[in-house]
Design goal:
Largest sheet: 2 strands, antiparallel
Number of helices: 7
Strand order of the largest sheet: 1-2
Number of domains: 1
Length: 119
């Protein structure tokens, strides 16, 4: 899958995503652990929502493998790849600015967004 984007600095680029088959969708399902104080994601959101289905089809492990060499072993740990790529996808899908996608993530969180951005 290919996404074209334009960032706030007016540069353009292309994001290539490898979409997996049923295996990727199976990996995206929750483990079902019963944490006393937290509800499972599949109990909170509509698992048939288009963003949830998209997140289940993306091969996140492949993306991690492609981007991992760009991270340094020194210094502070980097931000998770899925979080950054997920926000970039949501930014592109909804036509938001950098500030707009951050604002919606922090203050106006939509439950289906969590499926894209968080493991």
């Amino acid at each position: 899958m290919q996404f074209h984007f334009q960032d706030s600095l007016e540069s353009t680029g292309v994001i290539l995503l490898r979409i997996g088959g049923d295996d990727a969708a199976e990996e995206a399902k929750t483990t079902g652990s019963n944490d006393l104080f937290r509800a499972r994601l599949d109990q909170i959101i509509n698992m048939k929502h288009e963003l949830v289905l998209l997140a289940g089809k993306i091969d996140w492990d492949w993306i991690d493998g492609e981007i991992a060499p760009l991270y340094s072993e020194n210094g502070r740990p980097g931000i998770e790849t899925r979080f950054i790529i997920g926000l970039l996808l949501l930014k592109q899908i909804y036509g938001l600015s950098d500030e707009g996608v951050c604002e919606r993530w922090v203050h106006g969180k939509r439950p289906a967004w969590t499926a894209v951005v968080v493991n």
